[in-house]
Design a protein that fits this description.
mainly alpha, single chain, AhpD-like
Length: 146
């Protein structure tokens, strides 16, 4: 696969806005480990090799175990995730696949049971942000370093 346009140089203003959003997400009250799981799961669904590579490395650097990271694709069956993490992963899948799921009430109720209204908005913004990055990276074929 060949990389396409470099979105950072093609539109610095757009990337400045994306970076400001990413910076805001990094300052939200949600646990960093939870955010990395969300970023990884969204990137897996979207098939974003660049983001999967980056967020796996970031999570390991921050103390996450490879065992849990390997199990993110099967989080429903894996016993390694808390109820809060499971709710976040469910909401991530629901919003990342919005055209298929339409964010059903049962998914909302599950996540709302684990997150305050503020945290739920923060989580949703984090999910939106990684989906935006995935679309840039996949659309422009940004590749991880070999």
């Amino acid at each position: 696969m060949q990389p396409r346009a470099d979105f950072y140089t093609a539109s610095p203003d757009a990337m400045k806005a994306m970076m400001a959003l990413e910076n805001a997400v990094s300052k939200l009250s949600l646990e960093k480990s939870l955010l990395e799981l969300v970023k990884l799961r969204s990137s897996q669904i979207n098939g974003c090799a660049f983001c999967i590579d980056m967020h796996t490395a970031d999570a390991i650097k921050d103390g996450e175990t490879p065992r849990r990271l390997f199990a993110v694709t099967a989080w429903r069956e894996a016993p390694f995730f808390s109820e809060r993490e499971r709710a976040a992963l469910l909401w991530t899948e629901s919003l990342t696949q919005l055209s298929l799921t339409h964010a059903p009430d049962e998914d909302y109720e599950a996540v709302a049971a684990q997150f305050s209204p503020k945290e739920l908005v923060d989580l949703t913004v984090a999910i939106n942000t990684i989906n935006g990055w995935n679309r840039l990276a996949v659309g422009f074929r940004k590749l991880p370093q070999a």
